[in-house]
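On clarity, I found the account of how folds are encoded harder to follow than it need be. Since the whole study asks how a given chain folds, the encoding of that fold should be made plain. For the editor and my fellow referees, an illustration may be useful. An entry of this sort, consisting of the sequence and the corresponding backbone structure tokens, reads as follows:

:::
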Amino acid sequence: MRKFIDIVLLVTWVWLWLIARACSQPPPLPRSPQVPCFFIFGDSLVDNGNNNGILTLARANYMPYGIDFPQGSTGRFTNGRTYVDALAQLLGFTNNIPPYARTRGPAILRGANFASGAAGIREETGSNLGAHTSMNEQVANFGNVVLQMRSFFRGDVVSLNSYLSKCIFYSGMGSNDYLNNYFMPDFYSTSSDYTAQAFAAVLLQDYARQLTQLYALGARKVIVTAVGQIGCIPYQLARYSGNNSRCNEKINNAIIVFNTGLRQLVDHFNCGQLPGAKFVYLDSYKSSHDSYQNAASLGFEVIDKGCCGVGRNNGQITCLPLQQPCEDRRKYLFWDAFHPTEMANILLAKATYNGDSQSSYTYPMNIQQLTMI
């Protein structure tokens, strides 16, 4: 009996010693972000609440938008995380990058999201839906942020530029210039004013100017996103009645012209036109094509209709307030008439962050490699 008690006492002592030792160890430090800040420019694909307080039809701050997001309906045009939310997590940020509309003080040093639903490269794009912040205005807003940041660097422009040169900049523009401009002839004259080739050329001219302005403000590591296969989204499928193709290839062919020019623009920027800058082209056209072709292997069962919406393909009217969405969002490629589901966004973020050169949708390097240069 005595021996048994001694053993119990010994085990208890060892157990208490291990607890004390564990408690004396400092808690693990949170993983530091791989870059000091992340700035985001774009449209509803990455808007996270900038349109909430303005007069526009392009807003998503109501249920069931955000049904799978921890904070609920924040203004994200999907059921959960956007592509840039998922990418920010991969970059090591513990919190989502906040919308510019609600970012003040030192928080601006970590980055901001300037994206606005319905926004485009051209100033008039998206005006059919109401107010929004165009790419020109988003760049101007970033210019104001740089002025704010100078105060935190006590006016030391060299140090500020060094800081910004380590940050990641993301720009996803162009979709609305086609959806809510060129292919909306009842509201805009651009399709009669320009051929598809000429329209792509003027878009790229404006976009090159805007990206060059970001460079002048300090951007050095920049991701630019191609326009996806918008001829295949539920909104277009609900309106298209072609016999030879599932998608509206007239729209897709116009997009290809723009995307080809955008990739060439990236080459020009990287080959000395903007010294010290490194641009990455994100091929979301190829990624959306591959998602259709390889849907089953990716876990998607429904690729031609929105999880939430009204009419043919759930694409004639987008997701209405308090509408009941599909039950298993993970099986749907599209959340609504225009936007991918959270699952699609996460898969794209992973593929572009550290995908290899053969299978990745990034050129000339993946995003993880961009962070390290």
User: Anything to note?
Assistant: The first strand starts at residue 38 and ends at 42. The beta strands are 38-42, 111-113, 168-172, 221-225, 278-282, 302-306, 332-334, 362-363. DSSP finds 13 helices and eight strands in the chain. The longest helix spans residues 249-273.
